[in-house]
Amino acid sequence: MSNQPPRELAVKLRSFTPARVGLGRTGVSQQTRDLLEFQLAHAQARDAVHARLYTAAFAAEMAASTGLPVLRVHSAATDRAAYLQRPDLGRRLDQAGRASLPAGDYDLALVVADGLSAIAVERHVCPLLKELLPQLEGWRLAPLVLVELGRVAVGDEIGAALGARMSVVLIGERPGLSSPDSLGAYITWEPRPGRTDAERNCISNIRVEGLSYQQAATQLSDYLNEGRSRRLTGIGLKERSHDLPEHTANV
C-alpha cells in the first residue's frame, strides 16, 4: 500500500478527474470553499437546463460556418416549461415544422436540437461540423435542421420527412455538476417515428474538456460508414476503438 499522505493522494487523483474527490472537512462539515464550488456548479447546471437557444442567430452562424442551408423548426412543446414537464412534446414537431420540411432523397440528415443544454449547442456544434463535414465527401446531405425545444427522437420524424437514409441528432445533454455544456450525437439508420434508443448509437461528452471535436468527428464518420454498409445502427453496430495502447503481456 502507498505511503503517500491522503492530501497528496487526493491531489494526484484530481489530476485525472473533475469529480469531487478527497474533499476536506472542518469538524463534521465541508469546507466553505468546497461548498461554494458545489453550489456554483449546481447553479450552472440549472442555468444550462433553462437557457434558451436563439435559433435565428445560431442558424445564421451555422449557415456561414458550414455553407449548407439551414431550416428552423419547432417541436410541439410551446415553451421551455412545457418542454421540461412533457418530454413527449419535444419528440415531435409542431404542425408548421412538419409542413416546412421538403421531401427529398438524401443519404444523411443532420439535425441540431437545443435539448437540455443550449450552451452545449452554441459552443460545440459548429466546431464539430467543421471537423465532420470534410469526412462526408460523397454523401448526399439534406439541409441542416435546427430544432427549438427538441429531444433526440425528433430526428426520426425529421429524417423520415426529408427522405434521409440516416440521421444524426446533435443535442445538448443533461448537465452534470462538472459538465453543463456536454454535447451528444445520436445516429439512426432509416429514421422514422417509433424508433427506440436500442436502434441508435450515441457519442457523448463532446466538449473541450471531454471528447475532442476531431475524435468525435472520426467516431461519427465510422458509425455512419459502417451503418450505411450494414444497413443498421444500435446494439448490432459496435464502435471501433481508436488510439488504444498496444496490449502488454504479463499485465
Protein structure class:
alpha/beta
At CATH level 3, the topology is: Rossmann fold
Name the helicity range. Answer: 25-40%
Lateral strand order in the biggest sheet? 3-5-4-6-7-8
How large is the count of helical segments?
A: 8
Please report which band the strand proportion falls in: under 5%, 5-15%, 15-25%, 25-35%, 35-45% or over 45%.
15-25%
Quick one: how many beta strands? Answer: 8
Summarize the biggest pleated sheet: 6 strands, mixed
Distance between the termini: 19 Å
Q: What is the CATH class?
A: Alpha Beta
Task: Count structural domains.
Answer: 1
Describe this structure in words.
By secondary structure, the chain is an alpha/beta fold. The protein has a single domain (55-230), classed as Ethanolamine ammonia-lyase light chain (EutC) (Rossmann fold, 3-Layer(aba) Sandwich). The protein is 37% helix and 18% strand. The protein contains eight helices and eight strands. It has helices spanning 6-14, 32-50, 55-66, 80-85, 95-100, 118-132, 154-162, 213-230, and strands spanning 25-26, 29-30, 70-74, 106-113, 144-148, 164-172, 183-189, 200-206. Helix 6 links the parallel strand 4 and strand 5 (144-148). Helix 6 crosses helix 8. The two termini are 19 Å apart.
